Amino acid sequence: SQKGIEEWQHLVLDSEAGAALRDQPQMYAARAQVWRALGRTDLALADLHTALRLSPADTDNQIALLWMLIDSNQLDALRRDLALYSRSLQGLPDGLDVLSAAAQTLGDSAAALRYSQQIYPRKKTDALWLLNYGDLLAQAGDSRRAQAASSQAWALLQLPPKATTGGKTTNKSLDDLLARLRLSHSRLDGAGQQALLVQLRDKLRSGALNSQQTLQANAAIADWLLRLDTNSAARWWLARRVLTPAARQSIALQMALRDNDREAVRHLLQQGAARHLLPQDKPEAERAAGHPLQALAAAEQVLETAAERGQDNPALQALARQTAEQQLALAHRATVTLEHRQIDNVVRQGPVLRLSLQLGGQWRVQAQASRQSLRSNNTAALVGVPSTWSDAQIGAQWQGERAQLGGALTHNTAVGTLNGWRIDGGAQLPGNIRAQVQAEHNAVADESGPLQIAGARDRLQLRLSRDFGRVWANVSTAVMSYDTRRGDPLGHGASTQFELGLWLRRGQPDLSAKLLGYSNRFSAKADPPLPAYAPLVPGGVAPNAAFFVPAGDDVYGLGFGFNMAHSDTYTSHWLPYAEVDVLQSRRLGWTNNLNLGIHGPVFGSDELSLSYQRQQNTSGLNRQWSVQYRLWFGR
Questions:
Q1: pLDDT in tens, 428-483
Q2: DSSP state of 13
Q3: Between 20 and 30 A from 199 (CA), which of 276, 355, 406, 468?
């Protein structure tokens, strides 16, 4: 008891007769074990440090000290003492054991693996050690050897267990059962896994487990449930029964990543939960948390380490493809598009040139220019269309981790000239909601053919979006005012749109379905006719504002998408995509929207795409086909 050891210290150790004992490191090492048994880790550590001060080269005490620091999770002290004693322990079997465990506790899986590789010949018949060795190999990206170690452990666990004395559940028998349950996911059918789970539940109900064993059993059940592709309440409840913060963080982070819950992932990463992930999973966690630059840096580090070690597996290959795509997102881009576009009765056709230059990690400069032919395809409704359309834009964009801001100056020439501007902003709001705002002045208006060539638009738009795992939702609202390019007021408008979608399948090919709808309200001013625009009207009659401003409408319907998540992103192979919306319009009855295309690389870091779009609304028939070539360079 603590009282007994304190009395012994007072009567013996502190007396004149105990002077010789006070200089013996063995006495302090022995008393440290007593203090540890009494739960006084602080006094036990103090005695071990005293023993090592008296005999610095005593490797037994060095090993005992490191194990005690590991068990008490004193990471700073462990890091300091590991640096002091690692050299002297590397040649000892017991020293390698504690060095490997210490490195793993400190999150240095590379060092833990180096030590474990030296231990392997001695431990290759220890199933539980092999299970941990397989984890270290998996963290290093060596999936082939990790699988071999797990298979070796599984084979050893199938051997008949050795008989145990007494009725208590030994640590060995419980650990073997926990290991079999963990490895059973890909090796036993459902009935076999359930049988192991029943054994574990029986042990929990028996009352034979101590508190530490109960904790381990609950953690194993939660881990087993996490491997199932389900979000059942039972899994969540059992996961909450895992009492250690580290285990709770690990399971919560895996859940959040599976559900694509960005806010939860970000919160858990701030708490340090990333240390529970495999290195190749950390970039995905950073990406899910909305940290693209950290995700790219983490991915590049993983791939660099794998290349140095000559490692290659499907997970690393997938990470390499994703990293290449992210690097392209940060590269310069040059785009040439040849398009044919019809809006209402106006058709324009010709090339569009775009250039996007990355300045540092967060700034991008963008420019666009086009000179296209212009004509009317219905001279019974619109005449006097100029033969040339010219458009130019130049702007800049800043991209942060949680916000973005951009702006551009615009210039357009058709029936008159427009000089305008546009400001865009976006931010991540609480609740994992993404908000985007856009304000524009003297912009080209595409609500109707006459507006496109002779009108101007001022607009303020707000868009909110959120992902709920496989479900996404967005809603936007905008208010507009319209003028001629000469400054004559034409009217106002308001628009509200929504989408509620479900990913039926992710990956490639992806499949999606959505509910969508919009409500457009337009009001044309009842001002006098506009003689300056009489040349646009057959017969030369001066038009009023209603000639420019379209009728409003209310539309709702269903949409189905194929590969739409990848319709505008770089892919390493040719990929078709399609989207069809079936709509009910208040004014037009049943109608539809169609979007078809295919895109893929030609030489490597480039993309050729062909696309066709078609829409029918109150402004008329809108359709577009285009051939586009995009080149990434400079990264």
A1: 888 889 999 999 999 999 899 999 999 999 999 999 999 887 899 999 999 999 99
A2: I
A3: 276
Q: Give the closest residue to 386 by CA, choosing from 377, 375, 395, 394.
A: 375
How far is Cα 71 from Cα 66, in angstroms, rounded to an integer?
9
The CA-CA-CA angle for residues 265, 227, 502, to 5°, reads: 60
364 sits in which H/E element? strand 363-376
Q: What's CA 560's distance to the chain center, in Å? A: 25
Whether the Cβ atoms of residue 351 and residue 628 lie closer than 8 Å to each other: no
Cβ pair 411, 563 in contact under 8 A: no
pTM of the model: 0.57
Q: Give me the helix-helix angle, 190-206 and 211-226, nearest 10°.
A: 160
User: In this structure, are residues 541 and 534 in contact, taking their beta carbons and an 8 Å threshold?
Assistant: yes
Residue 116 in tokens: 């474990």
CA distance from start to end of the chain: 68
Listed residue (335, 334, 336, 339) closest to 611, CA to CA: 339
pLDDT digits 0-9 by tens, 387-406 = 999 999 999 999 877 789 99
Q: What is the DSSP letter of 18?
A: G
How many Å apart are CA 534 and CA 528, to the nearest integer?
A: 13
